[in-house]
Amino acid sequence: MTQTSLFYIIIAILVIEFIIETTLDHLNSKRYNDPIPNDLQDVFDAEEYQKSQEYKKTNYKFGLLTSTFSLLLTLGFLSLGGFEWIDTWARSVSDNPIIIALVFFAIIMIGSDLITTPFGYYKTFVIEERFGFNKTSKTTFFTDKLKGYLMMAIIGGGLTALIIWFFEWAGTNFWVYAWAVVAIFTLFMNLFYSRLIVPLFNKQKSLEEGSLKTKIEGYAQKVGFEIRNIFVIDGSKRSTKANAYFSGFGKEKRVTLYDTLINDLDEDEIVAVLAHEVGHYKRHHIVFNLISSILLTGFTLFLLSLFINSPEVSMAIGVSQPSFHAALIGFGILYSPISEVTGLIMNYLSRKFEYQADDFAKNTFAAKPLITSLKKLSKNSLSNLTPHPAYVFMHFSHPPLIARVKNLKA
Ligand SMILES: [Zn+2]
């Protein structure tokens, strides 16, 4: 296939994806004013529901603005030879393919981040602020960015350098070595993310002794779940939205509760949320997700190895000299329809897993506190109670609230 036809395929992929997303958002927005299902009448009072409607509409309009802007930016960049310009600049810095690639990606990432920062700033300090969610200070916002850059430079830069080095050394077989490194890295991050990365952004401490801890330990013992690490994280530093998650496995497994969750829910509700998380662990969802993400990475890297040596894939993004880094960008866009499909499958499985974890909590603890906790969490994040089924199918990793409540009541 020629580079020109590949160029048009890339443009078509970007435009078609934009049209699909925009149509889904539009369909979803048409459902905002649907009547609230009977089982969910008690989530909001009239005034709060009004507020949640405005929140959804504001986010919808803002999302449309940012996605349009980003499409136009990408199309403009592609057609005006932006990648060629950056590539030439990166080549003037060094002759080493690894350094050229690092400079190339650094410019693209920092450049696009600088362009999109005003949108992120507006979202946090205007939209989230107006609806009372935002607790982030401007200092936290910008230091988060700097820390993010630093992490990206060390981890992203390190992995990219290593992968290109494999390519220089092993040719198209690089994918096997790259896969091994990425798989080990994924495992390592799953085990030590909470220990190494979270402290860079948040304070976390062990859950203090008291009736909540006693209750949690009592439940854990009952279901035969050894839990030594329960942490509380200062999520309230950034937002009023609450959360809880599970990470690691074996001795490194730990439960992290947001301080906002502890403030918003009563003790039974917190244990119910925890029981749901334990359900994910007991039903092997954590291991399943880890293994499938590693297999998917292997599949992607293998496909990449088939295209990486075709100069057309590089040149389709407008550069004159083929290279690993340019081909990576071209491949990234050409691959996105496939990743849409794998994403769909993963979302579908994830929704199944949510029901299984809910059932586990229902059978080993109780349904009622889980229902009230889910309702409180939905209320506190002004969630959409009436999403469009097509939108749920494409985007939701969790079933909509009404489906979960119905399942828990069944
Ligand atoms: Zn879950």
Automatic annotation (TrEMBL):
Keywords: Hydrolase, Membrane, Metal-binding, Metalloprotease, Protease, Transmembrane, Transmembrane helix, Zinc. InterPro entries: CAXX_Prtase_1, Peptidase_M48, Peptidase_M48_N. Residues 207-409 form the Peptidase M48 domain. Residues 28-203 form the CAAX prenyl protease 1 N-terminal domain. Binds 1 zinc ion per subunit. Pfam families: Peptidase_M48, Peptidase_M48_N. This is M48 family metallopeptidase. It comes from Maribacter aquimaris. The lineage of its organism: Bacteria, Pseudomonadati, Bacteroidota, Flavobacteriia, Flavobacteriales.
